[in-house]
Amino acid sequence: MRDWDAARIARAAGAVLVAEPSRAASDPGPGSAAIDSRRLAGGELFVGLRGERLDGGIHAVQALRAGAWGVLVAPEHAQAALEADTQGAVLAHEDPLAGIQALARRWRVELRARGARVVAITGSAGKTSTKDILAALLAARMRVTASPENFNTEIGMPLAILAAPGDVEALVLEMAMRGSGQIAELTAIADPDVAVIVNVGPAHLEQLGSLEAIAAAKAELIAGLARGTSVVVPVREPLLAAHLRADVDVTTFGDDADVSLIERRGNGTVLIRDRGQDMVLRPSFEQAHNLRNLLAAVAAARALGHTPEGRVEVRFSNMRGQRLVLPDGVVLIDDCYNANPMSMRAAIDDLADTAPGRRVAVLGDMLELGADSPRLHREIGEHASDSGVGLLITVGSLAGVMSRGFAGEVHSVADAPVAAELLARLLHAGDTVLVKGSRGVGLERVVAALAGPRATTRESARGASVLAPGAGTGRR
User: Fold this and answer.
1) What is the pLDDT of residues 275-304, one digit of tens each?
2) 88, 68 contact by CB (below 8 A)
3) Among 18, 35, 32, which Cα is nearest to 92's?
4) Percent of the chain with pLDDT over 70
5) How many Cβ atoms are within 10 Å of 52's Cβ, its own excluded?
6) What is the distance between the alpha carbons of residues 17 and 243, in angstroms, rounded to a whole number?
7) I want to staple 446 with a disulfide (CB 3.0 to 4.6 A). Which of 15, 415, 420, 459 is the partner?
8) CATH superfamily of the domain spanning 6-96
9) pLDDT tens per residue, range 124-146
10) CA 221 to CA 213: how far, in whole Å?
């Protein structure tokens, strides 16, 4: 939006321009939008959103004084910003969230006119990692912007779109939901050229009631596609079959699919085939679930006309399988951003595949599973037992049910601080520890307590890229 002036931004947002920016600038418009006045770098459009307990518009003057290009706030806060005699633009909107969504929609239209393509990714598990992989694949050939961390909601996704520079060639967006209608809302804003549904699993059963309803909510992405666009889906997924469209190009990925993994070679390379076209890639990871995500990303890249090849270096988003080395050779797998039965099984499988010594799992509640929650938690305990986990620590009342299906040493605790204290006493030299649970359990506190200042990060034995632990926001 750098080359959009204040009047154009106000029209695009459906806002009233109360005050033009008064200071000279090489660019007439903002470079991005932001909703946290404490984290402004300068030059952003600050949007004061109304929350349940706080109206962000009260920080309009603070944002302008911190260097914001301008503010988009409710009328009463716009008047306060005007009276404060600041230099930035002031835009008034009765519903600032609707304003930022409208602005993002118009910026997306502008980006299309400039030649940019949009890929939208959703799924019950792995969509953030698939986004990270696809961005890495495309970055070898084009200018790419991807949703940062988990900017995947009705607030975060518009912010991701508005952060895209005018010369971007590919915009990779993540879409999440907790109920029906939300993916449709995001699709209307993003208007994707390529859609990817990574999988359908038992997340949000409490809200939606069945796997069929979850699939229908994810498939709102397909329903919102324009004619002649592309969709990438798991092969032979019966839950999505009824939602596919004849006027949209469909590519499947997985075993014996349009895009399949044909061979894993000893030097870390993989052979992937897309309907007769072979591609040899050397990804910076080898976990089975991320290789499947790689297939989805390759299918999306091919839908954009790009054939990946060679080295694929991926920096995965925080708290998604990063490995930290502790004293005595203990390896801590920080996968605690979120969890559902599908992602939990994948993480346990990775632990089983990579741990050279004792396998330890600290597993927290999987939230929003509804009436099936006890069964699904017990089955995770059984899977951990079958996978050779030697020590299980469950965190939370729901996760405690895992102990009923676990045959080895198990301890059930109420919260993350107690789990961290217990784990520190039970660790052995050479252990590999998986920490995973739903975001609300706060298992990042276990990672922080154990890692401390002496921990180092590394690429895992299987090649996953590593980042320092961090926080994220978003829904599944």
Assistant:
1) 999 999 999 998 999 999 999 999 999 999
2) yes
3) 18
4) 94
5) 4
6) 43
7) 420
8) MurE/MurF, N-terminal domain (3.40.1390.10)
9) 999 999 999 999 999 989 999 99
10) 14
